[in-house]
Amino acid sequence: MMACADFGQPIINLDEIAGGFDADHLERGDLHPTIDTPKALEAAEYLLALMEFSPPDILSMSWYERVRPYAEGKVAMAYGYTLLAPYFELDPQSPAFANTGYLPHPHGPGGTPIAPVGGYVFGVPANLPEERIDEAVEALVAFTSPEAQKLFIQNGSRTAPRYSVGSDPEVRRLSPIFESVDQMSWRDELQFWPRPPIPEISDIIQICGYELHDMLRGIVSPKQALSRAQSRAEEVMRKHVT
Q1: Is residue 140 part of a domain?
Q2: CA–CA separation, 144 and 149 (whole Å)
Q3: Are residues 171 and 65 in the same domain?
Q4: Contact 180, 102 (CB under 8 A)
Q5: 197 and 166 in one domain?
Q6: How far is Cα of residue 145 from the mean position of the Cα atoms in its chain?
Q7: Any domain includes 125
Q8: What is the model's pTM?
Q9: Distance (Å, rounded) from C-alpha 86 to C-alpha 81?
């Protein structure tokens, strides 16, 4: 899905707008998967080409485990979240310590540089007793305040949801990651449309994971993997509609 976005292809038929694709209006009734497309095929072939330059055990690594060979100096580049940067930024023994730069994903001929946005959602449970709601809201406000965000960073975090915190001189001195992410934002490279928040997204992620993993293992061709993923994703979206 991320590679597709880098080649200019959303995972569902989003409308193209300035700076990317419109993921703000997902209540449409005509949404369908766009996995088996020419651009997606380019992305799949790119993933296959990456295998030549990947650690031998890359297909048994989770997303989070991929930071380990990078931190150990076994690979020169790696995809990763800013969430994982402390793994090597706080380890003076790591070859990557104070020796790392940050860039958005490389892109294909039909795409642009993209740094997919992820994160966490805080909320108040619907079944919380009414007398506890005000305290829960107060806790969320405190937890997401600039003061709390800065405190997290000073204690090892490398994410800054607030512009004000990311531009704080004390924060900037702790890591180059904050300026890098800030620049990506100003260049409109931070995008969340590669992972559109539709009810079926978790199923589609799982489907792509299974089918593309088989492709990378050499069990099926890129075209076969995309065709299978498209068919399975269409079935999932039809079930949710009905």
Answers
A1: yes
A2: 6
A3: no
A4: yes
A5: no
A6: 24
A7: no
A8: 0.87
A9: 10
Alpha-carbon distance of 150 to 20, in angstroms, equals 31
171 & 77 share domain: no
Span 159-211, pLDDT tens digits: 888 889 999 999 999 999 999 999 999 999 999 899 999 999 999 999 999 99
From residue 155, alpha-carbon distances to 63, 149, 168 in Å are 24, 10, 15
User: Could you tell me if 215 and 98 lie in one domain?
Assistant: yes
Domain total for the chain? 2
Q: Following DSSP, what letter does each residue of the chain receive, concatenated?
A: -HHHHHTT--SB-PPEETTEE--S----S---B--SSHHHHHHHHHHHHHGGGS-TTGGG--TGGGHHHHHTTS-S-----GGGTHHHHT-TTSTTTT-----PBP--TT---BEE---------TTS-HHHHHHHHHHHHHHTSHHHHHHHHHTT-----SHHHHT-HHHHHH-THHHHHHHHHHTT-EESTTS---TTHHHHHHHHHHHHHHHHTTSS-HHHHHHHHHHHHHHHHHHHH-
The predicted structure's pLDDT at residue 98? 94
Amino acid identity at 63:
W
**pLDDT at residue 62 in the model:** 85
178 part of a folded domain: yes
Residues 64, 111: one domain? yes
Structural domain of residue 56, as residue ranges? 2-23+30-84+92-115+192-241
Residue 120 lies in a domain: no
